Amino acid sequence: KFGGTSVGSPSRMKEVSQLITEDKQQKIVVLSAMSGTTNTLVEIADYLKKGNKEAANNVINKLRTKYMEHVKELYSNQEWLAKTSDFLEDEFMYLHSFSGTDFTETTEKTILAQGEMMSTNMVTNYLKEIGVNVKLIPALDYMKTDKNSEPDMKYIEENLKTILNENPDYDLYITQGFICRDYEGKVDNLQRGGSDYTASLIGAVLGADEIQIWTDIDGMHNNDPRIVDNTQPVRQLHFDEAAELAY
């Protein structure tokens, strides 16, 4: 799993693409939205909730400009540049469309889901451009929670295995972190930190050998570096120790 800062710019996306293709092992890669995007989508949803459609559309347009600059930097092949630009244009038109509808909780969660949709499509298309045999598998096709908002493990396992069995010959599978459907099939999310959770759920249902959570810091430290000076990363941690440190 790679978080928002790991895919926060075109150069970072290229670095991640290099990392995940180095060892030639078949793997599923979970990506977050580009850093800052989810916060911007929260801002858009907040404006719509308050009925300020003009402000929401202004923020959407600023985000569009930012992403279109990223696309120019990410791709060198005109075909993939055009395909990704078209996809992103559709995404931003979709975000604009919410200003003409009644605002609901599902509206908000659907808006928040678009960050991961954009980042995973951008990285998948870049991997295709450089010749990687890659498949994008939408999280909304297999990730689901039950009536208690807990992961529906049976559903996740059955649907994810079906998707993988129907698409067996890929070296890499890219999917979205954070987003899921609720028990009614509406777009939902696993809340903040949800991408780590997504990776853990996928690893659990598939019986993966290993789950790797990549981040922009060098691991868990023996204390909070924001409060304590000269903390050290801990090489190995038992789950209970990690839980205690996090607490």
| Helix share bin | 40-55%
Average pLDDT:
95
Shape verdict: globular
Number of continuous helical runs? 8
Order of helices and strands: HEHHHHEHEEEHH
Given as residue ranges, the uncertain stretches (5+ residues, pLDDT < 50) are none
Query: Termini distance?
Result: 22 Å
Structural class: mainly alpha
Trace the largest sheet across and list its strands. Answer: 1-3-2
Percent in strands: 5-15%
Total strand segments = 5
| Backbone CA Rg | 19 Å
Largest sheet: 3 strands, parallel
Report on the structure:
With 247 residues, the chain is mainly alpha-helical. 51% of the residues lie in helices and 8% in strands. The strands form two sheets. It has a three-stranded parallel sheet with strand order 1-3-2, with helices on both faces. It has a two-stranded antiparallel sheet with strand order 4-5. Helix 1 (10-21) packs across helix 3 (53-74), helix 2 (37-49) runs antiparallel to helix 3 (53-74) and helix 4 runs antiparallel to helix 5 (105-129). The mean pLDDT is 95.
SSE layout:
Elements: H1 10-21, E1 27-31, H2 37-49, H3 53-74, H4 78-97, H5 105-129, E2 134-136, H6 153-166, E3 172-176, E4 179-181, E5 187-189, H7 194-206, H8 239-246
Parallel strand pairs: 1-3, 2-3
Antiparallel strand pairs: 4-5
Helix pairs in contact: 1-3, 2-3, 2-5, 3-4, 4-5, 6-7
Provide tags for this entry:
247 residues; mainly alpha; two-stranded antiparallel ribbon; 5 strands; 51% helix; globular
Summarize the structure in short:
By secondary structure, the chain is mainly α. Helices cover 51% and strands 8% of the residues. It is built from 8 helices and 5 strands.
